[in-house]
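Researcher: We plan to redesign the surface later, but first we want a full-length starting point. Tokens attached.
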């Protein structure tokens, strides 16, 4: 299972004091107010950053970090992703799962025929959409709604879909 969950993407710097604008990718953007630490993903792994300030502007979160003192230190952070560890993730309700935990799941139809592998997901304005790749390398998208996603087994890394005509690309 994943240890870290993405909660935002740094879009750009804000001002001269090292603050950054973050596009939140979490269900609750106000959770940044409660966090003391988040993790910056870079080529060396996950680096902890201590949050010293948090405010909001339109659909963005403006964060200041103890470790980032000025705009020069903030510039290389553009387009980097911010994560939270599993211990500080939003608690799950009954029947819920973290999206990161289903990446790599084998996807089947309701009759048990293998359709492919869940490679990624996208968060749209309407809902989450799963990106699935067939064994022949073709990709198709499935809205993550009960109408199509019939069963998810996080432990077994499997997903069962209700397939409608035209959903899956022809080989």
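Model: Full-length starting sequence:
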């Amino acid at each position: 299972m994943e240890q870290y969950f993405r909660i935002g993407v740094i879009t750009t710097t804000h001002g001269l004091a090292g603050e950054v604008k973050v596009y939140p990718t979490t269900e609750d953007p106000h959770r940044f107010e409660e966090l003391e630490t988040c993790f910056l993903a870079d080529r060396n792994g996950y680096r902890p950053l201590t949050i010293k300030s948090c405010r909001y502007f339109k659909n963005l979160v403006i964060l200041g970090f103890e470790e980032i003192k000025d705009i020069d230190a903030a510039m290389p952070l553009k387009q980097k992703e911010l994560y939270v560890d599993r211990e500080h993730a939003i608690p799950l309700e009954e029947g819920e799962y973290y999206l990161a935990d289903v990446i790599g799941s084998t996807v089947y139809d309701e009759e048990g025929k293998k359709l492919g592998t869940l490679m990624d997901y996208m968060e749209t304005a309407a809902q989450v959409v799963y990106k699935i790749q067939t064994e022949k390398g073709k990709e198709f998208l499935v809205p993550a709604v009960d109408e199509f996603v019939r069963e998810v087994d996080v432990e077994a890394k499997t997903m069962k879909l209700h397939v409608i005509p035209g959903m899956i690309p022809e080989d």
